[in-house]
């Protein structure tokens, strides 16, 4: 519907992972790096060298080590309190993400087996939260493997770990995902997902506008409420109205909308009304400077085929002003609006952010509210008419009627 | 004044860890019972966001204080947490239902586990035993004097651990430890805001008699036998800031906290430690109080009160926690000597109105007038002198603060603060009170930096103001009593806002009489100060009508036919092409009109050939644009033409028309006159 706002979210850039290493607590020697890719990423005083048998194509450790394992070993192979938790530590400009795991069993030499598969990133990588789930997942997988078959404690199978982590590193850096079979029943399945911001709170008076063709995405496996409400998401109905039209529970409807919002399938606008007031924001200048946005605008707002010159549209947009309802504006500009869909004209501006809706707020003149009044809880100045009307499911006129005779000022913001 | 419009500091607690010859000790933490969520919620929405990513694992319920309101908060917390978790879990597993079920299981598990744990009598902070935290947060020497960042689940431990030097001193020094007299230099601590007088350094703390002895024999015996009061005993101290940033902001929040608070605070402590063992002395004092309380069975609350009473370091830590977690400025006074002010930078105004689903910071001033930058290099120097300050606090209070500090510059600072009126520009203030303009600007930046004032274009009754679309309507009922106290006889605040809600008019339209003007301008200042009103300013673009284009084209054709003049077209085409290559995107439309103009110039014109367009950068007009501009100005008298040439560079939608007069030194009247002459060609947009 609106190009450009469609969920084009960033892909993870390549070769983010500097190193993956497997370390464990050695009963005799203490914390040890057992395997690391690429080799020599961490310097460690112990005599363990990564096996160069397997499929390893890694270059000899010519580059200097990333950091000194000894310095941070207490955070990689920590005390029990930190096990089964995500522990990250920064050292030498690198961030080490680990998830130490402690297995207790009498078969182990000290009755416990502590290990950690850690990922090393540059410290200034801003979006490292993606890798948190990777580290968690790998830890849980190897924990299960160890519990099932002693995969890590058995020296024969433990040799294979190097090849595994090497593959994980390469695949995640190159393809952002990996699928590596370990044995008949276990596979490392990882995909890097970008972390999105939590969805903002959806209000009853919000109007969702699709950025994608939801009908085309939807299949029979989708959530039932979702299937019911999608046909009513048309850029006109408010969330409350959608739940009514779809005969769906309001709170479920809201949840569905939040999900769609989270994945960028929707954007939210205000209820469109001719009694509403719209005015320009400072973003109007970006519209003037962006020819492709202007073309989009021209195509979106007009019914008819002849294209409306942009300066003409700009003049119309800038003539929207505070204190002037859309209805009045339409009457003033009746002759100029030929071929223009006013609703689309306004919603384009709202979606692109160069128009804003000036809301009406009832404010008691004295600042104090008589608690006994029917609308008292809406009169602290923090509630606009859209909210009051959708909440009470009455028209603006009715609300005005209820406020009649009270000393209430209407403030437009 | 309370400014709730700040970024989220996400600070949960501050810990003090010390390593001495007797081992690592967990000396102090504040608040006494930290929760894994900040107690102070700077703005509702921010904290809500923060809550999404907070893990419940580290908030043992028995440690968080009870009381009904807290319980409510906790409930809300856990609800949002659960929701936030599913959102994050969703991203690593495809099926929502599965993850949700898993979520439930997990939470129940945690609940159970905790119930068992809590029965133990160990003192736990943030869900960990104190000794464990101490060990964890006392890094090896190699990790000292650099950023320390450790995170456990969603809790970040951030610090700047400092280790004693191999020679047993805390600071590189040419001579032997010179105490007191060295006035703050030498440590690379140029960025410390030293307010106190370093000369006071030698004065001992009131109740620390025997520590002075320790002072005297302090020097070189680091690591030697551990005698009670010797501050050489301590080998490392670490002030750890515990944060719980929202997942996506983790990096920026922690980095900011480190740069502006953690590092500066640690360095200031090191400076005092190097001077006379301040940190160690205070650490010992706190530990002694704790031991004593342990013996005597003093209650936890009493103990904390005693500690804050008796230890200036503990008090400083508590101040830093309280103020920084509320996004305020923390003023601390260390060792009876060093005044330090810490703050996280805040956004003081925005130019883009957030959409309804973006995080809102209501109350934040909304304007594009930001020509008075944070430092000399920023902003528009020509315009900066035409700005002024709007004080965010009571002027008397600011004057009192200035008087309390009493430095060399405080006299002129006070004079400036007294002279500064929001209706007068810096230049006018300079002329009236005799302080040089550049000094005024330095002082103004100082006041802005310390959040005492905001730089605005001077307010004027001829300018237009509206209710700010970012006004904090929820705060209105708290502002009404303040307003009523300030302006008891004038129109009530809601009424005034209603007036400003109509079609925009110059502010003078609301002033009943000339006598009311000063009072109404004060009201306006009040509205702007509280973000309730903002100035609407005009921005303009030049539109070329198709009539102009046709006229230019016709003229060119005539010129071509006339044999005396060289044919301008090929040349024009060349030039046009050249310019296009540079600015192809902006001029894509222009190009098409040029080519259409050229390709059709032999045919007779029809209306459709030309379309109105906008000249984006009139002062860098292409040749065809120049011809259009020439055609537009052709019939104007020369003085208008001259003025038009001066102001044309502002007609690109980036500059407020209101500032042209002061910027160019033209009378407002003349600006109006020129623009009036080109009325048909100018498109105005009104915004902030």
Can I get a quick summary?
The complex is a heterodimer of chains A (413) and B (688). Chain A is α+β, with helices and mostly antiparallel strands. Chain A is built from 15 helices and 16 strands.
Characterization of the model:
Chain B: It is found in: Vacuole membrane. Chain B: Belongs to the NPR3 family. Chain B: It comes from Tuber borchii. The complex is a heterodimer of chains A (about 425) and B (about 700). With about 425 residues, chain A is an alpha+beta fold. Chain A has four domains: about 15-190; about 205-270; about 275-360, no CATH class; about 360-410, no CATH class. Chain A has 15 helices and 16 strands. Chain A has helices at about 70-75, 130-150, 155-160, 160-175, 215, 225-230, 240-245, 250-260, 285-290, 290-300, 310-320, 325-330, 340-350, 385-390, 395-405, and strands at about 15-25, 30-35, 40-45, 65-70, 85-90, 95-100, 100-105, 110-120, 175-180, 185-190, 205-210, 265-270, 275-280, 355-360, 360-365, 410. In chain A, the strands form six sheets. In chain A, strands 1, 2, 5, 6, 7 and 8 form a six-stranded antiparallel beta sheet that branches. In chain A, helix 7 packs across helix 8. The longest helix of chain A has 21 residues, at about 130-150. Chain A is elongated and about 85 Å long. The model of chain A is unreliable at about 1-15 and about 45-60 (pLDDT under 50). Chain B has about 700 residues and is of the alpha+beta class. Among the domains of chain B are: about 1-65 and about 75-85 and about 125-170 and about 190-205 and about 235-345, no CATH class; about 380-455, no CATH class; about 540-685, no CATH class. Chain B is about 45% helix and about 15% strand. Chain B contains 24 helices and 17 strands. Chain B is elongated and about 105 Å long. Chain B starts with 10 loop residues before the first strand and ends with a strand. Residues about 1-5, about 40-120, about 175-230 and about 595-605 of chain B have low confidence and may be disordered. The chains are: A alpha+beta (about 425), B alpha+beta (about 700). Chains A and B meet through helix 1, strand 5, helix 2, strand 12 and helix 9 of A and helix 1, helix 2, strand 4, helix 4 and strand 5 of B.
């Amino acid at each position: 519907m609106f190009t450009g706002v469609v969920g084009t979210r960033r892909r993870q850039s390549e070769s983010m992972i500097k190193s993956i290493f497997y370390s464990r607590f050695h009963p005799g020697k203490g914390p040890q790096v057992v395997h690391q890719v690429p080799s020599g990423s961490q310097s460690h005083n112990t005599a363990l060298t990564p096996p160069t048998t397997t499929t390893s194509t890694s270059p000899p450790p010519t580059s200097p080590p990333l950091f000194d394992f000894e310095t941070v070993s207490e955070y990689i192979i920590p005390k029990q309190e930190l096990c089964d938790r995500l522990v990250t530590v920064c050292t030498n400009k690198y961030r080490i993400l680990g998830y130490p795991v402690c297995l207790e069993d009498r078969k182990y030499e000290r009755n416990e087996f502590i290990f950690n598969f850690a990922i090393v990133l540059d410290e200034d990588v801003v979006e490292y939260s993606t890798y948190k789930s990777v580290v968690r997942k790998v830890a849980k997988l190897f924990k299960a493997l160890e519990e099932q078959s002693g995969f890590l404690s058995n020296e024969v199978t433990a040799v294979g770990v190097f090849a595994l982590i090497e593959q994980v590193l390469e695949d995640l850096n190159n393809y952002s995902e990996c699928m590596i079979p370990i044995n008949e029943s276990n596979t490392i399945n990882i995909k890097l997902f970008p972390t999105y911001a939590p969805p903002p709170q959806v209000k009853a008076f919000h109007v969702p506008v699709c950025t994608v063709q939801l009908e085309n995405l939807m299949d029979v496996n989708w959530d039932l409420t979702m299937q019911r409400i999608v046909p009513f998401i048309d850029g006109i109905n408010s969330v409350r109205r959608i739940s009514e039209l779809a005969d769906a529970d309001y709170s479920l409807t809201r949840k569905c909308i939040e999900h769609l919002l989270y994945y960028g399938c929707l954007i939210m606008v205000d209820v469109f009304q001719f009694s509403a007031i719209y005015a320009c924001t400072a973003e109007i200048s970006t519209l003037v400077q962006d020819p492709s946005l202007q073309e989009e605008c021209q195509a979106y707002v007009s019914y008819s085929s002849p294209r409306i010159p942009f300066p003409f549209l700009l003049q119309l947009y800038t003539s929207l002003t505070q204190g002037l309802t859309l209805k009045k504006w339409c009457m003033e500009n009746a002759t100029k609006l030929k071929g223009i869909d006013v609703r689309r004209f306004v919603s384009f501006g709202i979606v692109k952010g160069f128009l804003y809706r000036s809301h009406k707020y009832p404010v008691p003149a004295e600042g104090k509210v008589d608690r006994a009044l029917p609308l008292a809880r809406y009169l602290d100045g923090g509630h606009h008419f859209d909210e009051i009307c959708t909440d009470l499911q009455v028209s603006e006129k009715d609300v005005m009627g209820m406020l009649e005779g009270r000393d209430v000022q209407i403030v437009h913001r | 004044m309370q400014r709730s419009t700040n970024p989220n500091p996400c600070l949960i607690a501050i810990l003090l860890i010390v390593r001495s010859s007797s081992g690592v000790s967990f000396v102090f933490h504040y608040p006494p019972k930290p929760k894994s969520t900040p107690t102070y919620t700077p703005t509702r929405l921010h904290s809500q966001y923060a809550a999404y990513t907070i893990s419940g694992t580290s908030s043992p319920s028995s440690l968080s204080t009870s009381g009904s309101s807290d319980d409510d908060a906790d409930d809300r917390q856990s609800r949002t947490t659960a929701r936030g978790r599913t959102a994050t879990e969703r991203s690593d597993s495809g099926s929502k239902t599965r993850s949700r079920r898993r979520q439930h299981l997990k939470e129940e598990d945690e609940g159970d586990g905790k119930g068992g744990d809590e029965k133990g009598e160990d003192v736990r902070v943030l869900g960990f035993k104190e000794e464990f935290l101490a060990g964890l947060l006392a890094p090896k020497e190699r990790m000292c004097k650099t950023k320390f960042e450790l995170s456990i689940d969603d809790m970040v431990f951030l610090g700047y651990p400092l280790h004693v030097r191999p020679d047993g001193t805390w600071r590189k020094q040419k001579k032997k430890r010179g105490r007191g007299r060295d006035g703050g230099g030498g440590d690379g601590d140029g960025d410390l805001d030293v307010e106190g007088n370093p000369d006071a350094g030698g004065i001992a703390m009131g109740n620390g008699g025997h520590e002075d002895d320790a002072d005297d024999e302090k020097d070189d015996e680091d690591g030697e036998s551990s005698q009670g009061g010797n501050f050489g005993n301590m080998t490392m101290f670490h002030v750890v800031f515990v944060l719980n940033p929202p997942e996506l902001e983790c990096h920026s929040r922690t980095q900011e906290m480190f740069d502006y608070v953690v590092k500066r605070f640690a360095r200031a402590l090191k400076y005092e430690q190097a001077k006379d063992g301040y940190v160690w002395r205070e650490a010992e004092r706190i530990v002694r109080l704790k031991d004593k309380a342990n013996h005597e069975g003093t209650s936890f609350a009493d103990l904390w009160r005693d500690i804050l009473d008796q230890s200036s370091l503990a008090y400083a830590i508590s101040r830093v926690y309280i103020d920084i977690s509320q996004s305020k400025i923390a003023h601390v006074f260390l060792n009876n000597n060093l005044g330090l002010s810490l703050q996280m930078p805040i956004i003081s105004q925005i130019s883009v109105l957030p959409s309804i689903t973006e995080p809102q910071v209501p109350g934040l001033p909304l304007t594009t007038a930001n020509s008075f930058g944070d430092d000399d290099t920023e902003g528009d120097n020509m315009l900066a002198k035409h700005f002024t300050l709007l004080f965010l606090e009571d002027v008397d209070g600011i004057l009192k603060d200035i008087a309390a500090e009493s430095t060399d510059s405080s006299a002129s600072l006070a004079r400036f603060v007294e002279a500064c009126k929001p209706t007068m520009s810096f230049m006018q203030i300079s002329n009236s009170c005799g302080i040089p303009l550049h000094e005024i600007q330095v002082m103004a930046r100082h006041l802005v930096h310390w959040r005492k004032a905001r730089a605005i274009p001077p307010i004027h009754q001829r300018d237009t103001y509206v209710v700010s679309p970012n006004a904090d309507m929820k705060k209105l009922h708290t502002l009404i009593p303040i307003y009523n106290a300030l302006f008891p006889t004038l129109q009530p605040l809601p009424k005034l806002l209603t007036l400003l809600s109509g079609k925009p008019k110059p502010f003078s339209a609301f002033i009943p009489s000339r006598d009311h003007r000063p009072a109404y301008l004060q009201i306006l200042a009040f509205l702007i100060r509280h973000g309730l009103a903002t100035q609407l300013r005009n921005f303009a673009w030049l539109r070329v009508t198709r009539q102009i284009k046709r006229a230019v084209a016709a003229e060119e054709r005539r010129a071509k036919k006339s044999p005396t003049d060289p044919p301008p077209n090929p040349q024009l085409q060349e030039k046009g092409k050249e310019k296009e290559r540079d600015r192809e995107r902006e001029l894509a439309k222009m190009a098409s009109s040029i080519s259409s103009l050229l390709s059709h110039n032999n045919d007779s014109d029809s209306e459709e050939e030309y379309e109105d367009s906008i000249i984006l950068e009139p002062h860098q007009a292409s040749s065809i644009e120049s011809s259009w501009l020439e055609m537009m100005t052709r019939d104007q008298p020369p003085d208008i033409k001259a003025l038009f040439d001066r102001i044309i560079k502002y007609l690109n939608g980036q500059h407020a028309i209101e500032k042209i007069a002061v910027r160019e030194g033209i009378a407002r009247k003349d600006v109006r006159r020129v623009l009036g002459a080109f009325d048909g060609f100018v498109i105005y947009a009104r915004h902030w």
